[in-house]
TrEMBL record:
Classification via InterPro entries: Cyt_P450_B, Cyt_P450_CS, Cyt_P450_sf
Name this polypeptide is given: Cytochrome P450
Keyword Transit peptide attached: no
Transmembrane segments: 235-262
Keywords per UniProt: Membrane, Transmembrane, Transmembrane helix
Similarity comment: Belongs to the cytochrome P450 family.
């Protein structure tokens, strides 16, 4: 392991890996293993060229950071590279620019802004989510069912989570498609990013006004009526948080699970009476190929240490759930031991743990199951080793998933 001098700052290290390239790698776990051997459980990396950060890979170390919001602020206003987020070409701005919602808050402010999310999600009717998600999945499949081939990422996985979650807020299908396109733009770099943000704001402004005029049994009305949201800006950003926080991760969860089932005989055989089923595949993806690979853990408010390495005030600390879930200190290499075990960190931990674990699992499970039950003789249209991952800082996910099938139900 390379010793880190206590007198060296992040900026002093050279030759650091780019985190999006790790996620794009055919085998991200192999990269994590190399980083562990070189640096230990926390490694210096680059978010973009010239923008360094710490990557925490240890299971216990992630818990240490995630549960200490007094030392690690979620607001990038405390980051030494905050000005980077003003660059329209930066890919970091979409998820790191501070907004008026719970993701970027700490302490009492976080608890105030988190309460409407918890209350709104707890009130969701899971049977209704299931019915609506099934209908969405069937409608999407119907658009390519007669073609005998499809890209299950671009034509399906990218759309299912957004159209499903949009229904929670009373957003219909047409606006759901428009919102999906706007979110994709918002996550990109360049002028399209700002255009995407503007369209999202337009959709949500009209949505809130319509619900003020005509309240409904959905999360928009719940947020508008909630005492802990003080104005329309907080309501709008709370809606954005729910829509966007798990968007890429749920896309990746669906796509990764479909890839696993189509390439791993242990799961493919289940369709022909094998031992492992859909829930096992969903769980294995969370353990072995965590869809939410990386998340901001915070920005150090003071000098500190993690796993013996010095973190300086203003350093960004990223939590690598994908690495922590395979931390050899807490998890075996035997994939069978993951079956039924849900102690992974793919939904995070601490005060900012994902509040939508149950509904997101419903969406992912139905998204995968509907494909498997409605498309006959489903198989990859290209060799498995030709499936490449997205170039993304946040998620590990197939860039495309071309398939062929003989017909549909």
């Amino acid at each position: 392991m390379t010793p880190l001098s206590r007198d060296r700052a992040l900026e002093d290290f050279t030759g650091l890996v780019l985190l999006p390239e790790v996620n794009q790698s055919p085998d991200p776990q192999a990269v994590y293993d190399r980083l562990r051997k070189q640096w230990g459980e926390i490694a210096p990396v680059q978010l973009e060229p010239g923008i360094p950060a710490w990557l925490v890979m240890g299971y216990r170390e992630i818990i240490q950071v995630a549960r200490n919001d007094r030392l690690f602020s979620r607001s990038a206003a405390n980051w030494r590279y905050f000005d980077t987020l003003q660059n329209p070409e930066s890919t970091l701005a979409a998820l790191m620019t501070p907004r008026d919602h719970a993701y970027y808050a700490n302490g009492d402010e976080h608890r105030r802004l988190r309460a409407p999310l918890d209350d709104g999600l707890d009130a969701l009717d899971e049977h209704r989510i299931s019915r609506e998600t099934q209908a969405i999945c069937r409608e999407l499949i119907a658009t390519f069912a007669d073609h005998g081939e499809a890209d299950l990422v671009a034509e399906y996985a990218v759309l299912v989570p957004m159209l499903s979650v949009a229904r929670w807020f009373g957003i219909g299908t047409d606006e759901g498609y428009r919102l999906t396109e706007a979110v994709l733009w918002a996550f990109s770099a360049g002028p399209q990013s700002q255009k995407g943000v503007e369209i999202i704001i337009e959709i949500l402004t009209n949505l809130m006004q319509s619900h003020k005029d005509d309240p409904a049994d959905d999360m928009t009305t719940s947020f508008l009526r909630h005492d802990d949201l003080r104005n329309d800006i907080e309501v709008a950003f709370s809606i954005i948080l729910v829509i966007m926080a798990g968007y890429q991760a749920t896309i990746a969860w669906i796509a990764q699970t479909l890839r696993l089932i189509l390439t791993d005989p242990r799961f493919g055989s289940r369709l022909r009476g094998g031992r492992l089923g859909l829930d096992d595949a969903l769980d294995e993806v969370l353990w072995r190929q965590s869809p939410a690979a990386n998340m901001v853990g915070g920005y150090a408010l003071a000098d500190t240490e993690i796993a013996g390495q010095r973190i300086r005030k203003g350093d960004a600390v990223f939590l690598c759930y994908a690495a922590a879930n395979t931390d050899p200190r807490v998890h075996s290499d035997d994939p069978w031991l993951a079956i039924g075990n849900r102690a992974h960190l793919s939904f995070g931990t601490g005060p900012h743990v994902c509040p939508a674990q149950r509904p997101s699992r419903i969406i992912a499970r139905i998204g995968v199951e509907t494909v498997l039950t409605r498309l006959h003789d489903l198989k990859l249209a290209v060799p498995a080793d030709e499936i490449t991952n997205l170039h993304s800082l946040w998620a590990v996910s197939p860039e495309s998933l071309p398939v062929r099938f003989s017909g549909s139900a």
